[in-house]
Amino acid sequence: MMDLSLCKQITDTILLIAWGQKKLRYINLRSYWHISEQGIGHLVGFSRNTAEGLLCSLSLNQCQITDQGILKIAKSLQELKNLYIGQCSRITDMGS
Predict the structure, then answer these.
(1) How many domains does the chain have?
(2) Rounded to whole angstroms, what are the CA distances from 9 to 32, 35, 80?
(3) Phi, psi (5° rounding) for residue 3?
């Protein structure tokens, strides 16, 4: 479990490091307005070749993720059981 909610110093680079943690099952990135979709891509591995981890719960509440990011997460993280995207203003009805 990695709970980084409300940590103001988190950057895209930190998420690249977290991506290497193959035993990571849960991560909370709530309220990261300054983390880009590319950073979230580092974490989840936006291709099947890199998404080897077993992440089963991802909280992105109040983040800047878009419909495209949601689709990529759905394709990349096949073990994901919970995806929290409340108050993500860039997600439309199409992405949710």
Answers:
(1) 1
(2) 10, 10, 26
(3) -110, 105
User: Tell me, what amino acid is at 1?
Assistant: M
4 token code pair: 């980084």
Q: Is 92 a member of any domain? A: no
Domain that holds residue 41: 2-84
How confident is the model over 63-91, as a mean pLDDT?
A: 88
Q: Is residue 28, in this structure, part of any structural domain at all?
A: yes
Q: What is the pLDDT of residues 30-73, one digit of tens each?
A: 877 777 777 777 777 654 444 455 788 989 888 888 998 888 88
> Measured between alpha carbons, how far is 10 from 43 in angstroms, rounded to an integer?
12
In a domain, 91, yes or no: no
Q: What is the model's pTM?
A: 0.77
Q: Exposure string (b/e) for 25-47, b if CB count within 10 Å is 16 or more?
A: eebbbbbbeebbbebbbbbbbbe
